[in-house]
Specification:
The protein has 259 residues and is α/β, with parallel strands linked by helices. Helices cover 42% and strands 15% of the residues. It has an 8-stranded parallel barrel.
Length: 259
């Protein structure tokens, strides 16, 4: 089991000193899929990493639309090819497809058409990921963040529609609890889960800091399903990692062990 933090490479020294295994970066700052090769700064930044850069999130920028009347599949194909090639170059194993701004369905746009657009996009992504030995994980988001793919169960409909082993599922404890999903939903998806995000429901603070979130039932389903992958803390306020990191990591490991 590997435990990491969603944080920039520049924080990787703190991450390592606090005992964590990896960082999860942003595609937009690390892989920079719209930046020409000669201007790409990812390799220089990656050289400064003190721990592996295991994953990267924010796969698609908001202005590069996946749904709606302004979708250009060939632009998306070129973008996907670029970020997957760069992910392989930097040994980034997992790319997280959240990207609420890019996949947000415009008002009054046909939802069935939008669903097909997302599937078409993910099939393009699957091919690029397969060519570069990268895994893309579909992330469910809360309804306040995006109006599509708002549950693990819904994410799984896309994973199954694409039917490629390089497109799998992510579960995020904060989104999961906020949308009142059930452990039955999680149990049904666990075979396809390849990445996990965690944060307390109250305030989206790092695990254990709110004092109100019990991860053991959530972790028990993952363990029972054989999950042994990576767990990333995704908490916007988790900046002073060196001070808070050891206690958060201790809490997470204990919750996993007792699950």
């Amino acid at each position: 089991m590997r435990f990491g933090i969603c944080a920039p490479v520049e924080k990787s020294g703190e991450v390592k000193r606090a005992g964590w295994d990896f960082v999860e970066e942003s595609v937009q700052t690390l892989l920079q899929g719209q930046t020409p090769e000669e201007e790409w700064q990812g390799p220089d930044r990656a050289k400064r990493a003190r721990v592996p850069i295991l994953a990267a999130n924010v796969m698609v920028p908001a202005q590069l639309k996946i749904t709606g009347p302004e979708v250009h599949l060939e632009k998306l194909r070129s973008y996907a090819n670029t970020i997957m090639k760069r992910a392989r170059q930097l040994n980034v194993e997992t790319i997280v497809f959240g990207s609420g701004g890019a996949r947000q369905i415009p008002d009054h746009f046909d939802r069935h058409k939008a669903r097909q657009q997302i599937i078409d996009f993910l099939k393009v992504v699957a091919h690029a990921a397969e060519q570069n030995n990268v895994t893309v994980v579909v992330e469910h988001l809360t309804k306040k963040e995006c109006n599509v793919i708002n549950s693990v169960a819904e994410a799984m409909t896309y994973v199954k529609a694409v039917a490629n082993p390089h497109v799998q599922c992510l579960v995020d404890s904060y989104h999961f609890w906020t949308e009142n999903e059930t452990l039955v939903d999680l149990r049904s998806a666990v075979r396809w889960i390849r990445h996990v995000h965690v944060a307390d429901k109250d305030g989206r603070v790092p695990p254990g800091e709110s004092g109100t979130s019990d991860y053991k039932p959530f972790f028990h389903v993952l363990k029972s399903g054989g999950y042994n992958g990576a767990i990333s803390v995704e908490s916007p306020g988790f900046t002073d990692i060196q001070a808070r990191g050891p206690k958060v990591l201790e809490f997470l490991k204990k919750q996993w062990e007792e699950a």
